[in-house]
Design a protein that fits this description.
Elements lengths: L1 E6 L7 H9 L5 E10 L10 H9 L5 E10 L2 E3 L2 E3 L6 E9 L3 E10 L3 E2 L6 H4 L3 E10 L2 E9 L10 H14 L6 E6 L7 H7 L3 E2 H4 L21 E5 L3 E8 L10 E7 L1 H4 L2
Parallel strand pairs: 1-2, 3-8, 10-11
Antiparallel strand pairs: 1-15, 2-6, 3-6, 4-5, 7-9, 9-10, 11-13, 12-13, 14-15
Helix pairs in contact: 1-2, 4-5
Length: 269
């Protein structure tokens, strides 16, 4: 089976390119970060990524779970109001699957689902953050996928909040004894203590495969550069056939692709 993890960028007009890329990969599972669900028909096409992408690939992935993080209709900074969206939107994470989803939750570890417009203090307060925990029935057996877009931290380094975040994700991943894959944009560098929390109990494929970059340099966007902030972790019930990061500038992150099997015979005994 093949899984893709991809931060598709909230402010890039790339939905058709993302969908075309996915069509070419022959995937079984997709985990998106920075997906936008539009709630008004007046919302500009740039902020309709969930609808635009699923219009092209939706039939290939009949099972979906969208976990919204926040809702807004404007952006505010230092008292200035920017009506950039055209209507109400939600931003969140999404998992798409060719196999039936049997359980799904959107678990908040920072703040909660809320109207979130004021970005004046974003770099100190951030917006709400959650991890999707999804169980999927693969030919009668269950696997678990966790999908996260992590807390912002300056220079992608540790804070007390990012350490607590990774401890929460680890605890959530271990609640059930299932083949488990943890994916997402963690907004953290590989040598942080926060990532180390997961390294202790899961295989970090970024480190194992010596991946040097998961982000391109995108000239018109801030806070982009050649670094690693996106990860896939697996437990010992997952057999990794291949793992790669594809260098394409469709988004301000590279897509991560895992080719894997389930070690049913090991964990079912």
């Amino acid at each position: 089976m093949k899984l893709l993890s991809y931060n598709i960028a909230i402010r890039m007009d790339n939905s058709k390119q993302v969908a075309g890329f996915i069509k070419a990969q022959k995937l079984d599972f997709i985990a998106f970060q920075e997906v936008i669900r539009h709630l008004d028909e007046s919302v500009f096409p740039l902020y309709q990524s969930k609808y635009q992408i699923e219009k092209i690939i939706g039939k290939d992935f009949p099972h979906k779970f969208f976990g919204p993080l926040w809702i807004t209709d404007v952006t505010m900074r230092n008292g200035e109001v920017y009506k950039e969206f055209g209507g109400d939107i939600e931003q969140g994470n999404e998992i798409l699957s060719k196999f039936p989803i049997t359980y799904a939750s959107n678990e908040f570890f920072h703040r909660h689902y809320e109207y979130s417009a004021d970005r004046t203090d974003f770099y100190t307060e951030d917006h709400s953050r959650a991890v999707e925990v999804v169980e999927i029935n693969v030919n009668g057996e269950k696997i678990q996928i966790l999908n996260v877009h992590g807390l912002y931290s300056k220079d992608k380094k540790d804070t007390d909040r990012t350490i607590k975040q990774c401890k929460y994700i680890l605890k959530a991943a271990k609640r059930k004894d299932l083949p488990t894959i943890i994916v997402g944009d963690f907004n953290l560098l590989p040598d942080t203590k926060s990532i180390g929390v997961l390294d202790k109990e899961f295989r970090n494929l970024i480190k194992e495969f010596k991946i040097k970059f998961t982000r391109p340099v995108v000239d018109h966007l801030k806070d982009t550069g050649k670094n690693v902030v996106d990860y896939i972790f697996v437990n010992d019930k997952i057999k990794v056939n291949d793992f790669k990061v594809i260098e394409t500038e469709i988004s301000d992150h590279y897509p991560l692709i895992l080719d894997f099997e389930i070690k049913w015979f090991l964990w079912k005994k």
